[in-house]
Amino acid sequence: MKILIADDSRVMRQIVIRTLRQAGYGGHDLIEAENGAVALELVHTQSPDLVLSDWNMPEMNGIDLLRALRASGQQVPFGFVTSEGTPEMVDRAMSSGALFLIAKPFTADSFRDQLDAVVA
Q: N or C: which end of the chain has fewer CB within 10 A?
Protein backbone atom coordinates (compact mmCIF):
# COMPACT_ATOMS: atom_id res chain seq x y z
CA MET A 1 0.00 0.00 0.00
CA LYS A 2 1.21 3.49 -0.83
CA ILE A 3 0.48 6.22 1.77
CA LEU A 4 0.90 9.93 0.98
CA ILE A 5 1.69 12.21 3.96
CA ALA A 6 1.01 15.91 3.30
CA ASP A 7 2.26 18.43 5.86
CA ASP A 8 4.27 21.64 5.45
CA SER A 9 6.48 20.71 8.41
CA ARG A 10 9.21 18.21 7.53
CA VAL A 11 9.52 17.38 11.22
CA MET A 12 5.80 16.65 11.48
CA ARG A 13 5.93 14.43 8.39
CA GLN A 14 8.72 12.48 10.07
CA ILE A 15 6.68 12.21 13.28
CA VAL A 16 3.71 10.90 11.28
CA ILE A 17 5.97 8.38 9.53
CA ARG A 18 7.46 7.26 12.86
CA THR A 19 3.97 6.89 14.33
CA LEU A 20 2.85 4.88 11.30
CA ARG A 21 5.78 2.53 11.87
CA GLN A 22 5.01 2.29 15.61
CA ALA A 23 1.40 1.47 14.71
CA GLY A 24 2.55 -1.39 12.49
CA TYR A 25 2.35 0.26 9.07
CA GLY A 26 6.08 0.52 8.45
CA GLY A 27 6.10 -1.93 5.58
CA HIS A 28 4.10 0.37 3.35
CA ASP A 29 5.46 2.73 0.70
CA LEU A 30 5.39 6.20 2.31
CA ILE A 31 5.63 9.33 0.14
CA GLU A 32 5.64 12.95 1.26
CA ALA A 33 4.27 16.30 0.09
CA GLU A 34 5.10 19.69 1.61
CA ASN A 35 1.74 21.28 0.76
CA GLY A 36 -1.66 20.55 -0.69
CA ALA A 37 -0.73 21.54 -4.23
CA VAL A 38 2.15 19.05 -4.32
CA ALA A 39 -0.08 16.43 -2.72
CA LEU A 40 -2.74 16.99 -5.40
CA GLU A 41 -0.15 16.41 -8.13
CA LEU A 42 1.23 13.32 -6.36
CA VAL A 43 -2.24 11.79 -6.05
CA HIS A 44 -2.59 12.01 -9.82
CA THR A 45 0.96 10.84 -10.65
CA GLN A 46 1.68 8.34 -7.84
CA SER A 47 -1.82 6.93 -7.19
CA PRO A 48 -1.51 6.52 -3.40
CA ASP A 49 -3.93 4.18 -1.64
CA LEU A 50 -4.38 6.58 1.29
CA VAL A 51 -3.75 10.29 1.93
CA LEU A 52 -2.95 11.61 5.42
CA SER A 53 -3.07 15.40 5.34
CA ASP A 54 -2.55 18.31 7.66
CA TRP A 55 -5.32 20.90 7.60
CA ASN A 56 -3.21 24.09 7.55
CA MET A 57 -0.60 24.23 4.78
CA PRO A 58 0.65 26.88 2.35
CA GLU A 59 -0.26 26.87 -1.36
CA MET A 60 -3.32 24.68 -0.78
CA ASN A 61 -4.68 23.69 2.62
CA GLY A 62 -5.94 20.23 3.46
CA ILE A 63 -9.67 20.85 3.09
CA ASP A 64 -9.12 22.50 -0.32
CA LEU A 65 -6.97 19.51 -1.31
CA LEU A 66 -9.73 17.11 -0.32
CA ARG A 67 -12.39 19.14 -2.14
CA ALA A 68 -10.22 19.37 -5.28
CA LEU A 69 -9.70 15.62 -5.25
CA ARG A 70 -13.42 14.89 -4.87
CA ALA A 71 -14.33 17.50 -7.50
CA SER A 72 -12.04 15.73 -9.98
CA GLY A 73 -13.68 12.39 -9.23
CA GLN A 74 -10.70 11.09 -7.24
CA GLN A 75 -11.97 8.87 -4.41
CA VAL A 76 -8.67 7.99 -2.70
CA PRO A 77 -9.26 7.32 1.03
CA PHE A 78 -8.40 10.55 2.86
CA GLY A 79 -7.84 11.39 6.52
CA PHE A 80 -6.66 14.44 8.39
CA VAL A 81 -3.81 14.48 10.91
CA THR A 82 -4.02 17.97 12.31
CA SER A 83 -3.63 20.09 15.41
CA GLU A 84 -7.22 21.29 15.20
CA GLY A 85 -10.12 19.00 15.86
CA THR A 86 -13.12 21.12 16.73
CA PRO A 87 -16.52 19.54 16.11
CA GLU A 88 -17.05 22.09 13.30
CA MET A 89 -13.82 21.02 11.58
CA VAL A 90 -14.70 17.35 11.97
CA ASP A 91 -18.10 18.07 10.38
CA ARG A 92 -16.47 19.98 7.49
CA ALA A 93 -13.94 17.17 6.98
CA MET A 94 -16.54 14.41 6.97
CA SER A 95 -19.03 16.30 4.78
CA SER A 96 -16.21 16.88 2.27
CA GLY A 97 -15.37 13.18 2.08
CA ALA A 98 -12.73 12.54 4.76
CA LEU A 99 -12.82 9.19 6.52
CA PHE A 100 -11.40 10.45 9.81
CA LEU A 101 -9.64 13.27 11.60
CA ILE A 102 -6.80 12.43 14.00
CA ALA A 103 -6.03 15.39 16.26
CA LYS A 104 -2.53 16.09 17.53
CA PRO A 105 -1.09 14.98 19.84
CA PHE A 106 -1.66 11.47 18.55
CA THR A 107 -0.41 8.01 19.44
CA ALA A 108 0.21 4.78 17.58
CA ASP A 109 -3.08 3.55 19.11
CA SER A 110 -5.02 6.50 17.67
CA PHE A 111 -3.52 5.74 14.26
CA ARG A 112 -4.47 2.05 14.54
CA ASP A 113 -8.00 2.99 15.65
CA GLN A 114 -8.55 4.95 12.43
CA LEU A 115 -6.32 3.17 9.91
CA ASP A 116 -6.99 -0.52 10.58
CA ALA A 117 -10.26 -0.43 8.64
CA VAL A 118 -8.68 1.49 5.75
CA VAL A 119 -5.36 -0.35 5.47
CA ALA A 120 -6.72 -3.87 6.07
A: C
Nearest to 52 by CA among 90, 9, 3: 3
How far apart, in whole angstroms, are the C-alpha atoms of residue 41 and residue 66?
12
In this structure, what DSSP letter does residue 96 have?
T
pLDDT average per 10 residues of sequence, the chain (120 residues): 96 95 90 97 96 95 96 96 90 95 92 86
Q: For residue 112, which of 23, 4, 36 has the smallest C-alpha distance?
A: 23
Is-above-0.85 flag for pTM? yes
Helix (H, G, I), strand (E, B) or coil at 103: strand
How far apart are the C-alpha atoms of 26 and 66, rounded to whole Å? 25
Burial bucket for residue 51 (CB in 10 Å: 0-12, 13-18, 19+): buried
Containing 3, the helix (H) or strand (E) segment is strand 2-6
Residue-by-residue DSSP string for 25-75:
-TTSEEEEESSHHHHHHHHHHH--SEEEE-S--SSS-HHHHHHHHHHTT--
